[in-house]
# Entry
Amino acid sequence: MRTPKGWGAPKEVEGEIMEGSFRAHQVPLMKAKSYQTKLKQLQDWLQSYKPSDLLSKDRSIHEAIERIIPRDDSKKLGQQVHTYGAHQVLKIPDWQNMRIFSPDELVSNKLDAVFRHTGRDFQWDEFSNARGGGTGCSRLTKGFLGIVHTMMVQYSKFSKKARETTWRKDLSSINSLETSTWTRQEHNGFSHQNPSFIGAVLNLKPTAARVDVPPDANTFLLTLAHCLRSKNYVNLMVSSKQPQPVFLSADEADSHCRASASLWKFASTDDGLDPDVVLVGIGAEITFEVIEAAAMLRKRTPDLRVRVVNVTDLMVPGLEGSHPHSVTHDDFDASFTADRPIHFNYHGYPNELKGIHDDSIRYNAADPRQSISCHGGRYQGGARRNEKIKLDMHELLSGIRHEISKIQEYIMTNSKDPEGTYDTPAFDGKASVHRDVGYAD
# Structure
């Protein structure tokens, strides 16, 4: 049976072909809630399935349908043991009546003795003449990158051995672009939230692994250009497909990418001089949260001295000598300070940061959802050095917790974030932004 994609959907939407085209993927009628024309098309589409034929007047399932449903739960598709059953001991088939599926590793697994009694059943692929330029960049949804984990590892091993020979030439880097991040899900949600591929790359040899987390469009373009030019690496770029603020001009982005980690003066108090607390953003949406946090602190607690640092190369703040890109202890202290509370708002799992730093750097590796967004860790950290903040901390945190509960209540009631949630943070005072900060798709 062969059916068109989106079979039964509207033939056209706003003059564009829908049924049978790529536009029928996922959510065909976007923003039907806001546009009457699309809402009418959605209603007509759903009504075409004639749900009234399946329901009685009291909206219960029609008796004729109920008679079809098996009374025995074991015969109901959704309640079979294959769906809900826990582990069961396998019923091993007759050892004389089996079929082995193995594309090319039968011999290496020492199963080739079966060829004394049987043969192969080849399924030939059609001839392909596809050729590329030898340099690739695969864009994959974050939650599915684990599928290519082993292939990425094998490529890195081949690249390592190739570099150890005199007759192998350089290889193009393998480039992966991670999008559809866990922080800005659309309709998929929990099933697609999985940043573990970052850890997979970090587990490679330091000479091969590169993880870049550019904070905006300009830094991303520079990062992509660098990765496509590179050789013999496994490059992972973590970015977002959602509209994001552009914090840095092209020249500023170039300087920032060369340093790979730098102080953002426009979001810091007195250009970051003598801070009470350091906020570090590592990731696109994550950096937005840090900038928003800095703006909130500027407004709510002007006496708190804040330094904002952004990291675009994940390896840079690592323990000295742990990676070719890691900075010295002195350089680390110059950017992140030697004795001030540091809150890392990081795109991946906190344990990855701990592994990079070897648990010896003086910092507080905090889950972004706990320190920056929810639990007021920036106030508690700043209060260690600033007596004025310590005096008002309880009142400040109580107000923050109250606002969080109101926001959560709003989201549950309206099924959307409050207005202004994604507006570019604005700063007032000496260190306010002196340039236009726009958005990029």
